């Protein structure tokens, strides 16, 4: 079962089939999804939704759908993932363009990091991103992340690994 996490403004909940239109729009938008493998056709966006659900079944953790409490609108995804063949786990997220720059990624990420430490009992929660993805570098730093190493990934890109500290509140 995928747990639900509530923060001040957000609900992190299991992805649902009803979320597909949001996935479809996000991954069809070349600019919005550029750092997430997009743009993608509709069937590949469906595969992303299915993979987000399947990761929970296979690993016991994964991506939540991020929903605003006030509006009930799904505005993105956030969670902890470790795809097959990837050298490390990571905190990751995506937010629809209209919901960006409102602190949603930060609030959802803090909740996911807390889940990693408190529920999964991980010794370290990490994130990584391409060097030019400056908004996510800044988010990692806002979360208190510190670079612990730099490694070459299977896609041929070297990335910094940020260790994210445990926080006492969401």
Describe the structure.
This protein is of the alpha+beta class and 170 residues long. The protein has a single domain, classed as Aminopeptidase, CATH 3.40.630. The chain is 32% helix and 26% strand. The chain contains 5 helices and 8 strands. It has helices at residues 20-28, 30-33, 42-59, 104-118, 134-142; strands at 5-6, 10-13, 63-68, 74-81, 90-95, 125-129, 146-152, 158-164. It has a 5-stranded antiparallel β-sheet with strand order 1-2-3-4-5, sandwiched between helices. Strand 3 (63-68) and strand 4 form a beta hairpin.
Secondary structure topology:
Layout: E1 5-6, E2 10-13, H1 20-28, H2 30-33, H3 42-59, E3 63-68, E4 74-81, E5 90-95, H4 104-118, E6 125-129, H5 134-142, E7 146-152, E8 158-164
In short:
This protein is α+β, with helices and mostly antiparallel strands and 170 residues long. The protein has helices at 20-28, 30-33, 42-59, 104-118, 134-142, and strands at 5-6, 10-13, 63-68, 74-81, 90-95, 125-129, 146-152, 158-164.
Mean pLDDT, all residues: 96
User: What profile does the largest beta sheet have?
Assistant: 5 strands, antiparallel
Q: Which CATH class is shown?
A: Alpha Beta
**CATH fold annotation:** Aminopeptidase
Structural class: alpha+beta
Q: Count the helices. How many?
A: 5
Uncertain residue segments: none
